[in-house]
Amino acid sequence: RRLVTGTSGNLSVRVGDRIVTTPSGVPLDSLDPARLSLIDLDGTHLSGAVPTSEVPLHLALYRHTGAGAIAHTHAAVSTAVSCTCDELPALHYNVLQLGGPPRTARYATFGSAQLGENVVQALRGGRTAALMQNHGSVSIGQDLGQACDRLELLEWLCELHVEAHRLG
After folding, report:
1. Is 96 within 8 Å of 148 (Cβ atoms)?
2. What's the pLDDT score for residue 6?
């Protein structure tokens, strides 16, 4: 969906008390089941490749939301908007599909527990997608398809925001 360049993004799916994640440093378009990683809800690596460096983010979201899947990327427009907005304005009614205007989680170093906590705060009140300051975007869903659809919608809303400002 043109949201990921190279290895700049990660996905996970919760299956009971286990989480299947994309591996660290592997382009998402070259994945196959043998290259995925399996961790538990404490982040212990159980099998497969080394998991994404964003395991703390994924664990925080699973602990504090009803998510069945998570999608995170560094797509160009949402990353740019994350540098300039505390909350994406509701320029279009489709923002309701994300539980309201997406907030921007305060900056924290990638892979840190603090980043996960900041994103949990940005999602409070039923939001299902957030921007991550100077980093990218993230969404949650019941399944991977819904999480990816929400991430794609967030990128479109960010594109709309940038275009509206460009036009004045």
Report:
1. no
2. 67
Catalytic residue among 54, 117, 155, 163: 54
Measured distance CA(152)–CA(119) in Å, rounded: 18
Q: Is the dihedral of CA 83, 94, 61, 23 positive or negative?
A: negative
- Is residue 27 within 8 A of residue 50, CB to CB? The reply is no
pLDDT at 44: 96
Packed helices 55-64 and 113-123: angle between N→C axes, nearest 10 degrees = 40
What residue type is assigned to position 156 of the chain? W
120-to-5, 54, 103, 112, 167 alpha-carbon distances in Å: 25, 14, 11, 13, 33
pLDDT attached to residue 42: 95
Q: What CA–CA distance (Å, rounded) separates 98 from 88?
A: 11
| Ranges of the chain whose pLDDT falls below 50 | none
Strand order in the sheet with 45-48: 45-48, 37-40, 18-21, 9-15, 69-73, 136-141, 129-132, 104-105
Establish whether 155 is a catalytic residue. Answer: no
Measure CA 76 to chain center: 14
In angstroms, the CA 106 to CA 68 distance is: 24
SS3 per residue for 116-163 = HHHHHHHHCCCCCEEEECCCEEEEEECCHHHHHHHHHHHHHHHHHHHH
